[in-house]
Amino acid sequence: MTGGPWGPAAGPGNTGPGGHGSTGIGPGGRFMATDAAYDEARVVLLGAPWDATVTYRPGARFGPGRIREASYGLEEYSITLDRSLLDLAVHDAGDLDLPFGAPAAALEQIRRAVAAIARDGKVPVLLGGEHLITLAAVQALAEGPAGRDLVVIQMDAHADLRDTYQGQELSHATVMRRVSQVVGPGRLVQLGIRSGDREEVTFGRRHTRFCTQRVLEPLQEVLAELGDVPLYVSIDIDVLDPAWAPGTGTPEPGGIDLHELLAAVYALKGRHIIGADLVEVAPTLDPTERTVVTAAKIIRELLLSWF
């Protein structure tokens, strides 16, 4: 498996990119029912197994492989949507081999990969990895035809709007501040936010569409205003209450349940989605494995609903 035009990715039987222990596997090394050839695919799954700037508990680098593995405990068919992944052309390109201790280099590699997928007329869906990977994907898509029309929808417990964290501008705690600088004022929609410092909240209320606690209702209100603009959707698994998804590096009590999150996914059906990611799944922090199964279901439902 070549992983697409940008170069090699982790394939079946590999121990994982950079020797960090990510398996990158389900049976055949792919998310279930995503074995379409790259040239034939409408959607490309791409793993970004990297968590070098996490601020509490590491482990999200293991997310992509374990989500793929967990997907084989689910059906390809969604009862809710009456659709099957078998009817959708998706290519799983495996995991990028990212340099663990070099944020700028890792982001540039992700940016190039996402840009290549988009240039080929396909939609990239990233499996993280920590949330900083979103910045590279948004940069790539904003440089393309979407340009300054791009709107980013973030579903997350955390604002991620710090200007710097521990003196660093590139961090999963600063990622949405950087994203807002890419897309411009008012083009970042933040949903479900329930954690941040005072400066972050002040910045969010002035410069983003800043929505606390809930996801579905404010999303519906925003969608009614947006029209047919290109969207990038970033889902941090910690938008869910830790009771639903304990396997994440910075759990924050008081979150939404899976029913609300899936309802928000379905509300985006028919929208002009040009990219997406699911981030911050840290499998080693959840011995029950319900977090990776939940993540795999979210991926299945968003693929079937949006594409």
Strand content bin: 15-25%
CATH class of the domain at 17-148 and 232-306: Alpha Beta
Tell me about the largest β-sheet.
8 strands, parallel
Succession of helices and strands? EHEEEHEHEHEHEHEHEH
What is the global morphology? globular
CATH architecture of the domain at 17-148 and 232-306: 3-Layer(aba) Sandwich
Count, helices: 8
- The parts where pLDDT drops under 50 for at least 5 residues are 8-27
* Amount of helix: 25-40%
Task: Give a written overview of the molecule.
With 307 residues, the protein is an alpha/beta fold. The chain has a domain at 17-148 and 232-306: 3-Layer(aba) Sandwich (Arginase, Chain A), CATH 3.40.800. 30% of the residues lie in helices and 16% in strands. The protein is built from 8 helices and 10 strands. The protein has helices spanning 63-71, 103-119, 133-142, 175-183, 198-207, 216-226, 258-267, 290-306; strands at 43-48, 77-78, 83-84, 90-95, 123-128, 151-155, 188-193, 209-212, 231-236, 273-279. Strands 4-1-5-10-9-6-7-8 form an 8-stranded parallel beta sheet, with helices on both faces. Strands 2-3 form a two-stranded antiparallel ribbon. Strand 6 (151-155), helix 4 and strand 7 form a beta-alpha-beta unit. Helix 6 (216-226) runs parallel beside helix 7. It is globular, with a radius of gyration of 17 Å.
Q: Which descriptors would you attach to this protein?
A:
307 residues; alpha/beta; Arginase, Chain A; eight-stranded parallel β-sheet; two-stranded antiparallel ribbon
